[in-house]
Amino acid sequence: MNNKVIIAAAGSGKTTHLIETALLLRNATILITTFTDENEKEIRTRFFERNGCIPSNVVIQTWFSFLLQHGVRPYQGYLYDKNIVGLSLVNSQSALRSQETNVERHYLTGDKKIYSDKIAKFACRCDERSNGAVISRLSKIYTHIFIDEVQDLAGYDLEFLDKLFLSPLEILLVGDPRQRTFSTNSSAKHKQFRRSNILDYFKSRKMKFNLDIDSQSLNVNHRCVSEICDFSNKLYPDMIATTSDNTSEIEHKGVYFLRQTDVEEYLQKYSPIQLRQSKSTDTHPAYPTLNFGVSKGLSFDRVLIYPTKPILDWIIRGIELKPTSKCKLYVAITRARYSVAILYDYNDNVNICGITKYK
């Protein structure tokens, strides 16, 4: 049994690592799964760029699609004998007043679609009722399961992971707890492992499931210059600091404070992508803008961050950010190769280690 999780730095090439590993295993049958549609498409694109095609021994699908196909439908009769027609995406906890014994009300919408926050729970119950048939079947179809962006999994997804760890399957997980801007569900199950605390989940499984936790192999950021890496590391001082191998000699690199009066000039001169927490923050309409979370997985030469008050409180006063805000800010900072500008009307007395005043 071989279970491994790689804690990867931003810009370290974690998706590329999965693809390279899969291409070496030509005699294996491999499933690669990830939470978001965007990342599933990115994995497919990377295969075509690297290999010209997706090998016949590799299947790529989203996490929910995987659970529906392999966790729910083959043995759903152990819980429910009517047809489940598909998936109902929900952003909060579904059917809160229903009892689990009422399978139809607890797991399904009125038109027989399974709630997305309960699909992993349903798959776990099917495996338990069928005496392990769900996982046994998976082990006969695949030899390896790779999960990209594993930090996005939550609730009963982690229960299903436990079952995979106990199987004959080779399990390889890659992810960055610092970039947990999305989550598969908001279930109360395993709530102690939400956001960057998923690292505690892996640690709690290390001995129980012989889980190899690798925090070194993908700890080099190939995207950001060292000044940006050093600044982003301040958000997670308890995690192993990431390092940079971007040694580009380029004008204007590092992290800067930028006054509002200099924004127009700065945008014209350096063409950064404007990043903000949400649409409620106004940016310059003539230049591209993305929300922090949407920018995940993307790379830009330069970014201009429009900080919220809590973000400025963290930078200036060291006041801890809430977990979600911290993850989103980490993503925003680490999108940039060369420079990060932070909008702040500073005075001459402000001096923050690692941040240069633009003027």
Beginning-to-end CA distance, first to last residue: 58 Å
Order of helices and strands: EHEHEHEHEHHEHEHEEHEEHEEEHHEE
Q: Indicate the radius of gyration in whole angstroms.
A: 22 Å
Structural shape = globular
For the largest sheet, list the strands in their spatial order. Answer: 3-2-6-7-1-8
CATH architecture of the largest domain: 3-Layer(aba) Sandwich
Low-confidence parts, pLDDT < 50 over ≥5 residues?
Answer: none
How large a portion of the residues is in β-strands, by DSSP E?
A: 15-25%
Q: Can you give the helix content as a percent range?
A: 25-40%
- On the 0 to 100 scale, the average pLDDT is 94
Q: How does the major sheet shape up?
A: 6 strands, parallel
Q: What oligomeric assembly is this protein in?
A: single chain
Q: What is the CATH C-level name of the largest domain? A: Alpha Beta
Return the domain count.
2
Relevant CATH superfamily of the largest domain: P-loop containing nucleotide triphosphate hydrolases
* Number of helical segments with 4 or more residues: 12
Number of strands: 16
- Helix and strand content put the structural class at alpha/beta
